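Give me the 3D structure for Nitrite reductase (NADH) small subunit.
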Amino acid sequence: MNWLDICALEEINVLGARVVAGPKGDIALFRTSVDEVFALDDRCPHKGGPLSQGLIYGKRVACPLHNWQIDLESGEALEPDVGCTHKYPVKVENGRVLLALTTIGECA
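Predicted structure for Nitrite reductase (NADH) small subunit (108 residues):
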């Protein structure tokens, strides 16, 4: 897998997000309260709202437009909503956030 060095972990606020340009649109990198990092397309499956501007709690983000809850691990909307956003491989090594531009799994 081809890993891109994006930034230092500290450059993403705790319970915050950072947006990077991807080949098919913006990708949001989310940092949880326990320093886990997840990467999803920066658009909600409902109306395309910018997930990077949503509230992060646990391993979820709430879309700022209509409060859809998106699981950061899977990219899936939580019930009663249905849909998903593409997720990307991301890891933290030596305090650096690394991203691969390959989507994981299928998403309608």
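The chain has a mean pLDDT of 94. Let me know if you want a second pass.
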